[in-house]
Design brief:
Plays a role as an inducible effector molecule that mediates Fas resistance produced by surface Ig engagement in B cells. It is found in: Cytoplasm. This protein is mainly beta. It folds into 2 domains: about 5-85, Lipocalin (Beta Barrel); about 100-175, Lipocalin. The protein contains 1 helix and 17 strands. It is elongated, with a radius of gyration of 20 Å.
């Protein structure tokens, strides 16, 4: 394994199927560009004469589009920015806070990361899209699924306030799990 001597940027991106690490090597003398996602080489280009530009690839089980932009700042200094689905990483993560809920919990010594995609009501657990069963209840809806031998339920209840919208709560073994902030 060659040492990453030209490593210029590292990002962590939280997606529904997990948190992914993106690493970028840029050899400004050789023109080399290498992109790693979760330690696996996705793109390798040697001897690029153009030192600025972009590299586009996909991340995770959902094949989310990612682009690294390489811009010259001054002289031989470069700036590297990551875009996810065409938005800056910051904008993408801000938007994700509105469209998803994430819970981190430990069951029987195993850590789980549960993500609800509010627009589709898809539920992900540790990188797997879960089989769910939805039902209407008196005060809203319940989405049922299992993690191991634990029964889980995401309750969706109206907050009664237009600005807040719907409140989603994860209940595992009759216990409410606090939402995680990633």
């Amino acid at each position: 394994l060659e040492k990453m001597t030209d490593l210029v940027a590292v990002w962590e991106v939280a997606l529904s199927d997990g948190v992914h690490k993106i690493e970028f090597e840029h050899g400004t003398t050789s023109g080399k560009r290498v992109v790693y996602v979760d330690g696996k080489e996705e793109i390798r280009k040697e001897w690029m004469f153009k030192l600025v530009g972009k590299e586009t690839f996909t991340v995770g089980a959902t094949k989310t589009k990612a682009t690294i932009n390489i811009d010259a700042v001054s002289g031989f200094a470069y700036e590297y920015t990551l875009e996810i689905n065409g938005k800056s990483l910051k904008k993408y993560m801000e938007n994700r806070l509105k469209t998803t809920n994430t819970w981190i919990l430990s069951l029987g010594g195993t850590d789980y990361r549960v993500v609800l995609e509010k627009d589709t009501m898809d539920v992900w657990c540790n990188g797997q899209k879960m089989e769910t069963a939805g039902e209407f209840v008196e005060d809203g809806t319940e989405t049922h699924f299992s993690v191991g031998d634990h029964s889980c339920c995401i309750k969706a209840v109206s907050s009664g306030k237009r600005k807040e919208g719907i409140i989603h709560t994860l209940i595992v073994n009759d216990r409410e799990i606090p939402e995680a902030v990633e």
